Amino acid sequence: MSTIELLSPIAIPMMSADESAKLRVTQNRVVRSEWMKMRTLRSSWLTLGLAIASMAGIGIIISWSTANDWANMRPRQKARFNPLADPLSGLFLAQLAIGVLGVLLIAGEYSTGMIKASIGAVPRRLPVLWAKLLVFTSVTLATMLPAALITFFVSQKLLSAQHIQTTWSSPDVARSVIGVGLYLTVVAALGIGLGAIVRNVAGAIAVLVGILLVLPVIASALPQTWGDRVNKWLPSNAGQALMSLGSDNTTLSPWRGFAVFCGYAAATMVVAAVLLKRRDA
Amino acid sequence: MIDARGLVKCYGDKVAVDDLTFEVKPGIVTGFLGPNGSGKSTTMRMIIGLDAPTKGSVTVNGRAYADHPAPLHEVGALLEARAVHTGRSARNHLMVLAATTGIPKRRVDDLIDLVGLTDVASKRVGGFSLGMGQRLGIASALLGDPATLILDEPVNGLDPEGILWIRNLLRSLAHEGRTIFVSSHLMSEMALTADHLIVIGRGRLIADVSVADFTRQASSDLVNVRTPEAERLRALLVGNTVHVTATSPGRLEVIGLTSDEIGDIAQANSIAIHELVPHQASLEEAFMELTRDSVEYHTTVRASA
Lengths: 281, 305
Ligand SMILES: Nc1ncnc2c1ncn2[C@@H]1O[C@H](COP(=O)(O)OP(=O)(O)OP(=O)(O)O)[C@@H](O)[C@H]1O
Ligand SMILES: [Mg+2]
Fold this sequence. Notes:
Chain A has 281 residues and is mostly helical. Chain A has one domain (27-70, 81-278). In chain A, 73% of the residues lie in helices and 0% in strands. Chain A is built from 13 helices and no strands. Chain A is elongated and about 85 Å long. In chain B, helix 6 links the parallel strand 6 and strand 7. In chain B, helix 3 (90-99) crosses helix 4 (105-114) and helix 8 (211-219) crosses helix 11. At the A-B interface, helix 1, helix 3, helix 6 and helix 7 of A face helix 2, helix 3, helix 4, helix 6 and helix 7 of B. Residues 40-41, 80, 152 of chain B line the site of magnesium ion.
C-alpha cells in the first residue's frame, strides 16, 4: 500500500555471503553454546558452589572436630570413626546439589520457555541433550574430583595431629577418593536425564531424591533375605559400592557396582533422548 | 517460501489445525489472521518443528525446517510465549543462540542496537516489560539473517512507536525478498502491513486473498459524506447499485461507491466536500463477518462499530 512505501525503510544489518555460508549447526558449536548457557546463569554457580562446599566443608569440619575431640571421645566412638569414609561423607549432600543442578540445566529451560529457542536453533534436538550431558559431566568431574582430593588430603593432615590418619596408598583409599568424583559425575548425568524426562524442576528433583535417597530407605525395610538381594542393585547403593571399604555379599564389588550405576544413567539418557525427539516442545 | 500441505494437529480430542494447505510467498508480507484459538500459533510451531503435525507436512524453502543445516539462517521465529530463560541477560541470551551456528558477536551487538535494547542488554530478562521482551524476541528472530521470518503477534505489547517500527521493519524485510509470515487478530493492522492474507477459523482455511482484494470488497461498503449540497450530491450519486441515505442535514451515507469515486463526482460537479470518510471499522467488520461462524470464544456483548 502506498502509505507504507513512504516510510523510510529500516536498515537491517545483513551478513556477508561469506559469513552466512559458514552458519552450520555443529555438535561443537552446540557444546560451546551449552557451556555459555551454564556459565551465564547465577543458579549454576550457586548450586555448584553448594556442591563443592558440601563435599569439602562437611569432610573438613568432621576431621577437624574429630582431631580436636579425640582425647575426649569414648572408645566406641573411636572405633566407629573411619579416617577415609568419614571425611568423604559430604558426598551425600553434594550428590543432591549436583543432581539438582543437572535437573535445572534442562528442566529450567522448560519452565521458562527457553527450550523453544534452544530447539528452534537446533531443530535436530539431540545435539542439545548430548551437549548438556558433556558440558555438565565435564564440569562435575573437573570440580568434584579436585574437591574430593582436597577434602581427603586436608582431612588427613588434620587427623595426623592425633595419628589417626590413613594414607593414599592404603587399601581402598585411592579408589574411594577418585570414586567420589566418578560417582558424582554419573549423578550429574542422571540429573540431566531426569530433567529431560520430567521437564519440570520440582517434579524431576522429587524423582531424583526418590531414587538416590528414598528408595534405599524403603528397600532397607524389606525382609533381610530379600533386602540383601535387592538393595545392592539400587542405583545409589550400586554406585556407592565404588567407595566401599572391603566387600561382603550385601554390596556389589566396587567396579561392578559402578558399572551398574552407569547403566542406570545410560538407560535414563536413552529414554530422555527418545522422548526429546518424539514429544512436542 | 513456506509450503503447508494438509496440516492437521490434534491435541487429544481437540483438533487445533484441520487440513490446512497454503503457501507463503517471498517478497511480500503475508498476514495470518483468525480469532482466538483458531490455530495460528499451533501452525507456526509446526512450521519450525516444535510441534509435530498429526498429519500432513510443511516445508520451508523445499525442506522440513529440521533438515536445514543452518536453521537460524533459514527461518527466524518470534513465538507467542516468551522463549527466554528469565535468569539470563538479553545479550547472553542472544549469544548462546548465536553460538549454536557460529554467528559472530558483532552481529549480536548490531541487533541489540537495532531493536533498541542497548541500555538494558546486560540486565536479566526476567525484569523486562512485555514490549522489551518482544523486542528481544525480534532480535533473536533476526539473528541468523533469515530468509524467512515467522512472527506470532509481534505487535503484542508494543507502544505505538514500536508498532510503526515493526510495520516498517516487516515491509523492509519483505522488500529485500524475504518471506514474511505474521499473525495477528487485527485486520486493520494487517491491512496496513500485509500484502496477502491467510485467514483461518477453527483450524480451517477460510480465505487466502490479497489485501487489495479484501479491502476493496470491504471498504466499498460504506462512505460517510458531509457536504453543504447534500441533496444535489445525493441525486448525482444514486443509481442501480448505489444506495444513499441522508442521515442528518448535510450528511450522507453512501453504499456502493468508493470514497475516490464520490470525491471525483463531487469535483466534476463543483460540489464542496467537507468530509469524506470511508467507514473505518469496515475492515474489522468484514473480518468478523468472514470468521463469524468459526469464532470459538464468543463474547456475549456484540462489538459495535
Ligand atoms: N499444547 C496444547 N495442548 C492442548 N491444546 C492446545 C495446545 N496448544 C494449542 N491448543 C489448542 O489448540 C487450539 C488452537 O490454539 P492456538 O494457540 O494455535 O490458537 P491461536 O490462533 O494462536 O489463538 P490466539 O489468537 O488466542 O493466539 C486452541 O483451542 C488451544 O486450546
Ligand atoms: Mg496464538
